[in-house]
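Narrative progress, year one. The postdoctoral researcher (J.K.) led the effort to move from monomer predictions toward full complexes, under supervision of the PI. The following entry was the first complex the group processed end to end, covering 160 residues in total.
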Amino acid sequence: MKVRVTVSLKDGVLDPQGKAISHALHVLEFPEVREVRTGKVIELDLEETDPGRAEQRARQMAENLLANQVIEDFVVEILK
Amino acid sequence: MKVRVTVSLKDGVLDPQGKAISHALHVLEFPEVREVRTGKVIELDLEETDPGRAEQRARQMAENLLANQVIEDFVVEILK
């Protein structure tokens, strides 16, 4: 079963990488860019056939390793 | 208008970060993890109200800056 965990910075947390991308896009003549926020996607292939159980385990993995919950939020989606 | 660009490594391209996460998850007693692939999410807030045009511009940004198309694929989604 494939599961996607998307980790993004919480609102209010500075995102220097996003700022750098925003600046570069302005230089490249994309003046319509107002703000850029960056994050990570982690796609997990699990030996697990029950979607509920796969989601629960992926959530534990995110809490224990993938996300730093002081500054990051995460979303778990079942892909197939 | 908010647009999400998800950049992931093409199939067959080595993903050392994914391998490291996979190893760490095994150590943390998640033996059901078969494979891990990592990628980036870039959320763009654009001064653009037409969804078709916003998608087209985000695609150009991905081709010019956000993705390295030799080793990476990207997907553009309109959020709102």
